[in-house]
Amino acid sequence: MKKNRLNDIVPEQWDSAWKASYKSTLVADTLEALKLSKDLGTYDIVNKPKHYNSGEVECIVAMQSMLTPEEFRGYLRGNSFKYRWRYPDKNGIEDISKAEWYEKKLRKVLESDGQ
Asked: CA 44 to CA 92: how far, in whole Å?
């Protein structure tokens, strides 16, 4: 099956082309995650996604160190909101779990700040 390039379709077709591309990418990513989980015995798309843990420093740790405490709390709140907003249309329960992760992280930050 020939894939259309963005330049080969009209703007009215962009959304459906993106959704088709996204779904095939999502399936491939899910299959890769399942293979990793079988090979390694662990893979956690919510708590330890590999794309945020590929270097020596986890992304969330670097993010926290570069932002002010207020900015970091806003970042956590914004991500929680984003995942709850999109869950019906994108990743369902996985997005709810990601929102909960950000909310738990926010709670830990607030408790460590004495709030």
From this structure: 16
Q: Say whether both 23 and 67 belong to one domain.
A: no
Residues 75 and 91 in one domain: yes
Predicted TM-score (pTM) of the model is 0.56
Q: DSSP of 62-90, one letter per residue?
A: HHHHHS-HHHHHHHHHHHHHHHHHHTTTT
For 39, the domain range is: 10-43
Query: Per-residue confidence of the chain (115 residues) as pLDDT tens digits?
Result: 455 565 676 777 766 665 666 555 555 555 565 565 555 555 566 666 665 666 677 888 888 999 999 999 999 999 999 999 999 999 899 999 999 999 999 999 999 888 7
For residues 37 and 52, state if they share a domain: no
Place of tokens 């914004």: 78
**Tokens standing for 92?**
């369902």
Same domain, 54 and 109: yes
Cα–Cα dist 96/112, whole Å = 24
